[in-house]
Amino acid sequence: MPPPPAARTLRAAPPDLARQEAALRARLAEQPASGQHWQQLAGVLAQAQRQAEAADAFARAAANGIAPQSIALPWALALSGAGRHADAVEVLRPAQARKPKDFVLANTLGVMLKRAGRLEEAVAALEAARRLEPRNVSPCQNLGNVQELRGDFAAAAAAFAAGLRIDPRNIELWRLHGRVLRALGDQDGALASLEKAFALDPRDRDAAAVLAGLHMDRRDWAAAERVCVRLRAARPGDSAADVMAARLLLRQGRIAEAQALLDGVIAREPGERNANLLLARLHGDGDRQAANEALRRALAANPDNPELMDALIESLSRSRYGDETQHIEEAYAVACRLMERHPDRVTRSARSLRTIFQRTMDVDRTRRTGTLAQLAPHWLAEGRLAALHYELGQVETLEDRIRIVEWHREWGRRESASRPPVERPAMPAIDTGRKIRVGFMSSDLRNHPVTYFALQLLELYDRDRFQVFCYSFYEGQKDQVQQHIEGKVDAFRWWPRRPDAEVAAGIAADGLDMLFELGGSTAMNKLEVMAYRPARIGASWLGYPHSAGIEAIDYILTDPYIRPADPRLLIEKGFELPDTWVSLGRLGFSDRQEIQDGLPEERFGRLTFGTMNNPYKYTLPCLDAWATVLHAVPDSRFLFVRPEGASAAFVANARAVFAARDVDPRRIDFVGVRGKHMPHYNSIDIALDSFPHVGGTTTCETLWMGVPTVSLAGPGFPERLSYSNLSNAGVGDLCAFTAEDYVAKATALAEDRARRRDLRKNLRAMIRARPLGDVDRFVKAFYGKVAEVAER
Prior knowledge:
The protein is an alpha/beta fold. Among the domains are: 378-578, Rossmann fold (3-Layer(aba) Sandwich), CATH 3.40.50.11380; 600-775, Glycogen Phosphorylase B (Rossmann fold), CATH 3.40.50.2000. Helices cover 55% and strands 7% of the residues. It is built from 36 helices and 13 strands. The strands form 2 sheets. Strands 3-2-1-4-5-6-7 form a 7-stranded parallel β-sheet, with helices on one face. A 6-stranded parallel β-sheet has the order 10-9-8-11-12-13, sandwiched between helices. The longest helix is centred in the middle third of the chain and has 20 residues, at 398-417. It is globular, with a radius of gyration of 30 Å.
């Protein structure tokens, strides 16, 4: 946003500001109650860009006789410059109310409201400014920016278009117009606007970057390269063209060349923002330490940059090297600072903010990031399906659940629009006797929970009837489990960082009858490859407990318990197995995981409820139910076993959550651990499942360790995983269908010590005798269903 006229006046620095300041301070030493001198000092400090001091000086001026309305505009600008946006609104609003026809006050108030994150009020103020000066472009641009933050991209496009009718040579407006058209999925309109912006000024870095990005989205590498060449010619020696070229190389999978370009930029300009951002993305999950170093380096050079804060929060949240607790604490501190300093950026940074606030159980700050209905349009416009993965439990009504399905469908259609089906080789019909070719695509085909459930399908298939192919994009080192899988299947393709189109072509060359995507939108996976339809039949299983949205995925694996009753809650057809959608194989579920004799209640002298579920699944109704259970069972305790359990922020916020529900926070215990959590089930008497998004792997582990789990089944797919696990283990009665019944079952089980003792001793044997533990039965049912579907 260009600064309003008053702001430009304040920034016109006269000579010798230090001398003026010294003279004014000398006068104030003699006359400390002189409002006029405080006002003059405030103006000098503002010109010197010392906005916090200027804001205080304006306050002293108002306290000493200067009418607040007369200094409201420069005072508000100083407050906003100091990051005190809410205070700026409070100073400016009375002055604007006194002069409702003052365009500058109305326009500036709209900007201040935007910066304070009060977007609905900002829209009203800026609409008023437009009516006051219909031929002024500034409120059009400001209004478009606000509407974009609100996620109303159509309204944003209309506002920018209105500005362009006033000033058709405004480069910034053409760029912004193109950006929101891109978010609306209008690639042709976006291309026209962005080309106009770049044609008006080939030196404009921002226009060039968005234009090149759009060409990359369209996979027009040559056009993107031409933009880079033109920018480099217009700005010789400028780093922006090198960063853009590196982004193009990265999108094409030319990793080493991209890194060489970025290293060159950073050698010249160590704190260069875009180079470090892209370098962090290049390192990604393959080297989170290097990614964090790049982001910290850039943030040190640009300490108040919200984009860098956003990226560092996300990267730290994904960091597993070294001391994970320190990463969590650092991410939380940066997130709190970002929310405080840039409230207008909260919507744009909501995914990273919500991730760390959920991980630290900061319920209030999570709420302040916005509602899912407000945030989902932004994530869809940015192609960030993974953001929805963490919000599957943010539902109350059937309409909420259907809306999430439709958001997935919208994302899938956008992805598919630019990914034409790849050509597959002709194959003999199955009835000729050839083997059925089945593929499994996941970067988690290693020592990972996905493989706990998939390994038996890769070891025990009938080699006379089937051929099995695996595809992994894992960026780390090969482990023993991956090496073992490679020796069991017909082919294991390990393609880290390979571009999606090349992956799709490589899979298509294998001539698969059916391809199962197991990774969803989680790290290093390539769900979007399914849009190319690289196999005759596409299916989804394990990695994403919901319809992914890509309509080229024909099936999703279900069982009688998981399948939603309402067909609107799935996009794909059901690939339904007769009993269970998973079985517990030997990798994650072995007798080496010791169950201690007796009950934890008997060993510790108190009953302990607990959870090992991920904090993003903790909803307010879930927390209410947990607190109600603790009220119903006096002297019981609740144990969180999570990596976050060692974080001071998580501990403080969790205790505050229970204290707010009248539960003594001293009854809440914590174990901070990652990957070595199984022995701690011996400290839990009863596991309380999260809801509506329930556990999956966690519920299986809990049952395997002899710990009964109380769960609540809901209408949607991610709400029914535990229902399947419990039913297929022989304890389906522990699944409730209302929150009241959930509390009642937990309370009754707390009183039934005999049953808990029996389950502690015998539940593992029960599982082995039932579908959840019968691996051979599961493998036979799975491949029988594959043959049935493939032969249609």
